[in-house]
């Protein structure tokens, strides 16, 4: 992973001469002797938990937040040890925090041993934080890597039982969080139907617009016991998606930002500053809150490349409404295809794309993994379904009925009496409007995903293909679980994609009104309709665990049975798995 140290940082570390030195986020220095008496007089509590993240072979970010008794500068010390009792402390340090960084504390503990578990804690005044665990990345020959993958946690939608379930899982090397760590909506907004009864109405009450707003929302999330339990158990590797700023954002705007809400750049700057304050992520350099793409090496087994497909350089999403021919009320497909495949259209930006290509080509791990936000697999659905004119069930039923009608009109002698009777009883459903819907072409159902940025997707797949890489793409964003085989424009399978469901945000069952008794048939219908799609879950909230060894990668999807109560169980009947063998580019369901 890239780590950027200033000369001041390096001198400070050299002077410490301890097993683990400290880099203070935002270049926070230890207070001078003149300030000690005043700073030590201040007290604070650790009400927002502790966390670790961005592990390397010899370092890890340690994070906490202090709630002060009174406003002012606080001295905060930290310790890292090889045992939970802290009888073997191998590093410590002291720093200060204040309202200028919302009383968050972020230190870079360095000089650690690779592939090693550690315990850490913070102290302010006489009070200690809880003791938490973390782990550095392994070097050299590695037999197995186990990563939990999750995204999309909407506080008012229900309890964070998914985080709790993950915190109880043994053997995790890291948690990969693919974004939508928070949501920006105000009270009564998205998925808030049960917020009041659950005691989970958002703070602040309004939509997030200012630095203070975003900080308050992060503080509320970090008051959640389940989230804090997971942070205290395993290091996080994170990227943001859109809701850390605003819904369906791109580089210069967002669907959920209006002109009367002020300058979007100012809003985005505030949002990303709060993200860096409240997440255990290592900045590229002092004050750089814009660039988060970076790589992590798990020895000779996994190279993980974390991408920013959202905030850094993304062009505005295309909109089908801009391609409707008013005369025929159909999509101008030629103009749409020209725009969606244009080589000037970007999601990553030139610099990030070049970095990714070089990282893939120079990667030495057995598996090359892209950690990013949106689906890369091509998800083409009949336009009648993609535009929600027909449900999957209705499309299948009416399509089969239309085929029967065509066979009868052609005088098909194999048409049975039962089929003919069914046709006679139901042919009234085949209105001209329905027949027109059935004849619409297949189109991308989600232009916010890679289907809306086809050129750069092709460049990435071509690079992996040239390398002969064992390519695994992981995604979140949709709130549903998926397993895709990734195919390039030549029809060659290049890699696989595993996507996680959400922590709490509702998925397609919410948008398409899929009832529980229609779940299986709808999922089977979509898998049948989408080329390369091998698995989906459209109703359940959960996360996935990727287990890598030198022979295969296995994805296990885990789901909870409810979000409406903190008393929950794993929905064992919904658990699913898929396996891809090294050297192959196909998915076998377990």
Automatic annotation (TrEMBL):
Q: The Phospholipase D N-terminal domain covers which part of the protein? A: 49-136
A matching Pfam family = PhoD_N
Q: Where is the PhoD-like phosphatase metallophosphatase domain?
A: 147-557
What is the protein name given in its UniProt record? Alkaline phosphatase
């Amino acid at each position: 992973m890239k780590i950027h140290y200033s000369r001041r940082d390096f001198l400070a570390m050299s002077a410490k001469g301890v097993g683990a030195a400290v880099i203070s986020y935002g270049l926070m220095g230890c207070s001078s002797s003149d300030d000690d008496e005043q700073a030590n007089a201040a007290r604070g509590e650790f009400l927002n938990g502790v966390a670790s993240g961005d592990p390397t072979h010899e370092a890890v970010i340690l994070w906490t937040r202090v709630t002060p008794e009174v406003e002012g500068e606080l001295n905060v010390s930290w310790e890292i040890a090889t045992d939970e009792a802290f009888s073997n402390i191998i590093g410590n340090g002291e720093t200060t925090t204040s309202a200028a960084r919302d009383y968050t504390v972020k230190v870079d503990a360095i000089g650690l041993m690779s592939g090693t578990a550690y315990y850490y804690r913070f102290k302010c005044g006489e009070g200690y934080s809880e003791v938490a665990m973390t782990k550095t990345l392994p070097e050299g020959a590695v037999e197995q890597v186990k990563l939990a993958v999750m995204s999309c946690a909407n506080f008012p939608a229900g309890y964070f039982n998914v985080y709790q379930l993950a915190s109880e899982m043994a053997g995790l090397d890291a948690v990969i969080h693919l974004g939508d760590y928070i949501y920006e909506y105000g009270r009564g907004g998205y998925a808030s139907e049960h917020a009041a009864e659950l005691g989970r109405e958002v703070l602040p009450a309004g939509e997030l617009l200012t630095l203070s707003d975003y900080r308050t929302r992060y503080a509320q999330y970090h008051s959640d016991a389940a989230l804090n339990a997971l942070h205290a158990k395993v290091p996080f590797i994170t990227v943001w998606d859109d809701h850390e700023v605003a819904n369906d954002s791109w580089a210069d705007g967002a669907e959920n930002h209006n002109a009367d809400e002020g300058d979007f750049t100012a809003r985005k700057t505030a949002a990303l500053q709060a993200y860096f304050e409240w997440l255990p992520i290592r900045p590229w350099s002092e004050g750089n809150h814009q660039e988060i793409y970076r790589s992590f090496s798990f020895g000779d087994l996994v190279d993980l490349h974390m991408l920013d497909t959202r905030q850094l350089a993304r062009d505005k999403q295309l909109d089908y409404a801009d391609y409707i021919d008013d005369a025929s009320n159909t999509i101008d497909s030629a103009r749409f295809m020209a725009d969606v495949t244009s080589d000037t259209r970007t999601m990553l930006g030139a610099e990030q794309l070049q970095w990714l290509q070089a990282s893939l080509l120079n990667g030495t791990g057995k598996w090359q993994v892209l950690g990013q936000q949106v689906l890369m697999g091509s998800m083409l659905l009949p336009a009648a379904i993609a535009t929600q004119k027909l449900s999957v069930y209705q499309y299948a039923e009416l399509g089969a009925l239309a085929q029967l009608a065509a066979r009868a009109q052609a005088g098909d002698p194999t048409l049975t009496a039962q089929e003919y009777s069914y046709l006679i009883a139901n042919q009234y459903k085949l209105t001209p409007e329905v027949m027109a819907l059935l004849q619409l072409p297949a189109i991308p159902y989600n232009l916010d995903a890679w289907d809306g940025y086809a050129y750069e997707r092709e460049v990435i797949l071509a690079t992996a293909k040239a390398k002969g890489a064992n390519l695994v793409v992981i995604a979140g964003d949709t709130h549903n679980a998926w397993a895709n085989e990734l195919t390039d424009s030549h029809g060659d399978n290049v890699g696989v994609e595993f996507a996680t469901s959400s922590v709490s945000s509702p998925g397609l069952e919410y948008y398409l009104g899929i009832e529980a008794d229609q779940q299986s048939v709808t999922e089977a219908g979509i898998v049948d309709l989408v080329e390369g799609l091998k698995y989906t879950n459209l109703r359940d909230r959960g996360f996935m665990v990727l287990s890598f060894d030198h022979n295969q990668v296995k994805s296990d999807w885990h789901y909870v049975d409810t979000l409406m109560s903190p008393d929950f169980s794993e929905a064992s009947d919904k658990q699913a798995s898929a396996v891809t063998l090294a050297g192959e580019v196909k998915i076998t369901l377990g």
